[in-house]
Structure formats: C-alpha cells, structure tokens
C-alpha cells in the first residue's frame, strides 16, 4: 500500500476540521462536531480504499505485461531449442513411451486416505 495509516489519519483530521468550521455558522457546536466526526470516519475509510486500490491497479497492469513478455520469452526459447535440434541432426519427433507396471509405485490415494481415517478412529477409542 502507498503511505501509512497516518495518511488516513491526516485526511480524516483535515476533513473533520473543514466540515466542522464550514457547518459551525449554521449549526450548533454539537451538530457540527457530529457531522465532522462522520466526515472524518468516511474520509478515513475512503483514503484507505484509495491507498489499497492504486497499487492493485498498477500491479495488475504490470502482471499482464509480464505475462506477455514471459510468453514471448517461452516461445522464442522453444523456437531456438527446436532450431538447435534440427541443426545438430537430432530427431524432432518424440515417441510415446507409457509407464510399465514397475514404473508407477505410488500408493492408491483412496486406500491411503481410508487407512488414515481408520487410524484416527482407532486412536479415539
């Protein structure tokens, strides 16, 4: 965020004083103070919102530009790598090689979850 909470407080104080002195000739001191307090609370929140939204908008614009630049970098890297393989005589076609029975030794997640739940139930008893 831009600034600190003091920025919010200063804006709220300026709003309070402005509303207080502008409404004092037409209203009582109590009414002017209440209106000034309401204005200061509102200005505090509006200032906070503005401090939050400005970096968010600028960061989203920068992130879109970064995404476009990174996509350009990836496509140029892929093109360079392909050109190097073609120039060196390597085959650019890749063949699909599926997993064998022994290549995949992961425990079934459903079985693993059920064993965990069973151990929790036995721990409670």
From TrEMBL:
Transmembrane segments: 6-24, 36-54
Listed Basic and acidic residues bias regions: 75-88
Domain of life: Bacteria
Stretches the record annotates as Disordered: 61-108
Protein's UniProt keywords contain Transmembrane helix: yes
Keywords of this entry: Membrane, Transmembrane, Transmembrane helix
Protein name: Uncharacterized protein
Lineage, opening ranks: Bacteria, Bacillati, Bacillota, Bacilli, Bacillales
């Amino acid at each position: 965020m831009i600034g600190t909470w003091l920025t919010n407080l200063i804006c709220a104080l300026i709003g309070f004083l402005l509303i207080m002195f502008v409404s004092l000739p037409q209203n009582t001191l109590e009414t002017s103070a209440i209106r000034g307090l309401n204005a200061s609370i509102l200005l505090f929140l509006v200032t906070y919102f503005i401090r939050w939204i400005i970096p968010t908008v600028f960061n989203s614009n920068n992130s879109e530009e970064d995404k476009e630049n990174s996509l350009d970098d990836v496509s140029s890297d892929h093109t360079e790598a392909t050109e190097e393989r073609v120039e060196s005589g390597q085959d650019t076609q890749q063949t699909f090689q599926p997993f064998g029975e022994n290549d995949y030794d992961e425990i079934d997640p459903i079985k693993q979850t059920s064993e965990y739940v069973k151990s929790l139930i036995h721990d409670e008893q």
